[in-house]
């Protein structure tokens, strides 16, 4: 953080700063559901409740749940016998719940239903004899989870247009594609165009795999970018959808920065900025947006305007057994 944050705001008239706040922003229905599952599990079973991997990619959310009694672990081996375990919103390979069942662990699956939909599609495509080209980012938990739904060798990762152009499949007439739910809409379109040009018969999913929340947040950033001198995205550095929001703003020709919390703001970034765009990734709570606005108000005479491109009303059901908790 810049030392200038500690400067005396009474030293002179405060500069004006217009805030354009993108909507939709922040929590999506899948993240909301996953967090609620952990909270209700703690309420029902008592602490501690173990969670395999970060429930969502946001340090503030994870730390808050940790204070309530959640223990986050990397692998199932770290979960002791006799305590409940929750699987993260990103999804897990089939081997993980199978191993939990083998050990007699009580588990709750907080996988986003839109990710689960991709898992079921992968199973059906492989059962139909198709080889899947999966567009996503290597090492992302969602990619690992999806690859773990089908036998090894039945799915190939495609990250870039170059990957699509270099691909040499054994059976080019028998291909299908699926995508990670948190990708850049524009980047994915370019990769798909390359795949379709090479493999015209490639089978597409019934509906776009990139989730509604990812698409909506990217559209909202595009709507404010042209009117902004800079865009701040609240989100974690390991959050795919948050990083994509930074890229969307930059692609529109606007400077953009990712911040996890208001404390990460360097006021030097705002020199020459008259209009600042603000948004938040799908795993960042609204509380962090307000925290950033409040900090800006200590140094600037701010005006605030929300720019809404669509209204979201999607909600996902909780797992059976937790609904009544």
TrEMBL record:
Q: How is the cofactor bound?
A: Binds 1 [4Fe-4S] cluster per subunit.
Its top-level enzyme class, in one word, is oxidoreductase
Superkingdom: Bacteria
Query: What is the role of the protein in this entry?
Result: Catalyzes the conversion of 1-hydroxy-2-methyl-2-(E)-butenyl 4-diphosphate (HMBPP) into a mixture of isopentenyl diphosphate (IPP) and dimethylallyl diphosphate (DMAPP). Acts in the terminal step of the DOXP/MEP pathway for isoprenoid precursor biosynthesis.
Q: Where does [4Fe-4S] cluster bind?
A: 28, 112, 211
The annotated active site, in chain numbering, is 142 (proton donor)
Which Pfam families does this one have? LYTB (PF02401)
Residues given in the record as isopentenyl diphosphate binding sites: 57, 90, 140, 239-241, 283
Specify the signal sequence span.
none
CDD domains per the UniProt record, alphabetical:
lytB_ispH
Q: Give the species this sequence originates from.
A: Sphingomonas baiyangensis
* Segments traversing the membrane: none
Detail which positions bind (2E)-4-hydroxy-3-methylbut-2-enyl diphosphate: 57, 90, 140, 181, 239-241, 283
Q: Does the keyword Oxidoreductase apply?
A: yes
From the UniProt record, list the reaction(s) this protein catalyses. isopentenyl diphosphate + 2 oxidized [2Fe-2S]-[ferredoxin] + H2O = (2E)-4-hydroxy-3-methylbut-2-enyl diphosphate + 2 reduced [2Fe-2S]-[ferredoxin] + 2 H(+); dimethylallyl diphosphate + 2 oxidized [2Fe-2S]-[ferredoxin] + H2O = (2E)-4-hydroxy-3-methylbut-2-enyl diphosphate + 2 reduced [2Fe-2S]-[ferredoxin] + 2 H(+)
* Keywords assigned: 4Fe-4S, Iron, Iron-sulfur, Isoprene biosynthesis, Metal-binding, Oxidoreductase
Name of the molecule in the record: 4-hydroxy-3-methylbut-2-enyl diphosphate reductase
Q: Does the keyword Iron-sulfur apply?
A: yes
GO biological process entries: dimethylallyl diphosphate biosynthetic process; isopentenyl diphosphate biosynthetic process, methylerythritol 4-phosphate pathway; terpenoid biosynthetic process
> In the Enzyme Commission scheme, what number(s) does this protein have?
1.17.7.4
């Amino acid at each position: 953080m810049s030392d200038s944050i500690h400067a005396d705001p009474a030293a002179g008239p405060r500069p004006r700063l217009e805030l354009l706040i993108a909507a939709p922003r922040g929590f999506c229905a899948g993240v909301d559901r996953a967090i609620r599952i952990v909270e209700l599990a703690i309420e029902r079973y008592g602490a501690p409740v173990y969670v395999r991997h970060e429930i969502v990619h946001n340090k503030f959310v994870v730390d808050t749940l940790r204070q309530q009694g959640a223990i986050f672990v990397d692998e199932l081996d770290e979960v002791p016998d006799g305590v409940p375990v929750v699987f993260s919103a990103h999804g897990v390979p089939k081997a993980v719940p199978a191993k939990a069942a083998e050990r007699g662990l009580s588990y709750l699956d907080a996988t986003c239903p839109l990710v689960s939909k991709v898992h079921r599609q992968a199973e059906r495509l492989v059962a139909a004899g198709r080889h899947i080209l999966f567009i996503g980012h290597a090492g992302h938990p969602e990619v690992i989870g999806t690859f773990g739904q089908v036998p090894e060798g039945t799915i190939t990762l495609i990250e870039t247009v170059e990957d699509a152009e270099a691909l040499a499949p054994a059976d080019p007439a028998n291909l299908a594609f699926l995508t990670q739910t948190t990708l850049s809409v524009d980047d994915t379109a370019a990769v798909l165009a390359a795949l379709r040009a090479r493999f015209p018969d490639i089978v597409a999913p019934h509906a776009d795999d990139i989730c509604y929340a990812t698409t909506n947040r990217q559209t909202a950033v595009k709507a404010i970018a042209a009117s902004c001198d800079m865009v701040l995205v609240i989100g974690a550095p390991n959050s795919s959808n948050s990083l994509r929001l930074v890229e969307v703003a930059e692609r529109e020709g606007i400077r953009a920065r990712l911040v996890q919390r208001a404390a990460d703001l360097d006021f030097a970034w705002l020199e020459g900025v008259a209009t600042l765009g603000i948004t938040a990734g799908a795993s960042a709570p609204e509380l962090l947006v307000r925290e950033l606005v409040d900090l800006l108000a200590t140094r600037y005479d701010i005006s605030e305007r929300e720019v809404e491109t669509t209204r979201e009303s999607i909600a996902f059901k909780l797992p059976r057994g937790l609904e009544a908790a």
